[in-house]
Amino acid sequence: MSVFALVHGSMHGSWCWRDLIPELEARGHRAVGPDLPCEDVSAGPEDYAECVEAALDGSQDVILVGHSRGGRTLPLLAARRPARAMIFLCCVPTGIGEISAEAFADMVTPEYREARTAQRADGARRMQADSARSVFYHDCPPEVAAWAADSLRWQGERRLVEALPLKTWPDAPLQVILARHDRAVRFEWALREARRWLGGREPLLLDGDHSPFLSRPAELAELLVGCANGNVVATSAPSR
Fold first, then answer.
1. Which of 17, 49, 67, 124 suits a disulfide with 89, CB 3.0-4.6 Å?
2. Structural domain span for residue 48
C-alpha cells in the first residue's frame, strides 16, 4: 500500500479530491488531501508544506502529487521528508526560484489570463464561477462543474510566486501528467518543459481538462497507481 499526499492547486481545497480518493482506496492505497491555507495571504511555502506534513502524520512510503500551482509545494516537501516520488499533475516543475510575472504569463493560456476574477481587500483573488466552469472544468458533467466553480476559495499570492527556501532541487524521482485539452496551463509550454525535466522522456497524457480528478478520476487513479509501481524518472534539476 502506498500513501498519496494530494496537494491541491490555487483556489481549491480538499473538496476537489472527493472522487479521486475513493478510486485510489479501491485500488488498495491510502490518500490524504488537506485544505491548504490559501485564504491566508501571509501564508508562505513552508506553511503549505507543514499543513501537508501534519495530514501525513508520520506516514511512510509517500508519493507526493501536486495539482497545478500545488506543484510548487512538492520540492519543499521532498526536501523535508523521504518521498518515493513527486508527481506533477497538470503542471511541471518550475525550479526553486521566484516566478516572475513574465514567466508566469508564458505558462498559462489566454483563457486563464482573460478569466474574470474577484479581489478581496487584502489582495486575495478568486476566479468568478462562470470563468472557472470554462477554464477549469469544461470536461466535467455540468452539475460537477457548477459545484466545483462555486466551491473555489480565496487565494493569497505569496506562496505562488516567491522563491522556495531551498538551496538545491530535492533528490526524488518525478513524473509529469498533463491534460491535452487544458485551458489553464499552456500545453505546448508544459510539454516542452516536462520533456526537459524528464531527460527527454515523454510525460503521461490524459484527454480532458485541467481537473481530471473530477472529470476522469478512475483514469487518473490508474496513472497514479502506475507511478506508485515505478513509472517515474530518477532525475535531478535540468540545466537551462
1. 67
2. 3-228
Cell 500500500 sits on residue = 1
Cα 47 to its chain centre, rounded Å, is 16
Q: What is the CATH classification number for the domain harbouring 196?
A: 3.40.50.1820
Domain count, the chain: 1
d(C-alpha 29, C-alpha 134), whole Å: 32
- Helix (H) or strand (E) segment spanning residue 213: helix 212-215
Residues in the chain: 240
End-to-end CA distance of the chain: 37
Nearest to 157 by CA among 199, 119, 103, 206: 119
What are the start-end ranges of the H helices in 86-186?
Answer: 101-107, 110-113, 129-135, 142-151, 158-161
| CA distances to 24, 156, 216, 222, 223 from 226, in Å | 11, 34, 16, 6, 5
DSSP sequence for 54-106: HHHTT--SEEEEEEGGGGGGHHHHHHHS--SEEEEESS----SSPPPHHHHHH
Whether residue 186 is contained in a domain is answered as yes
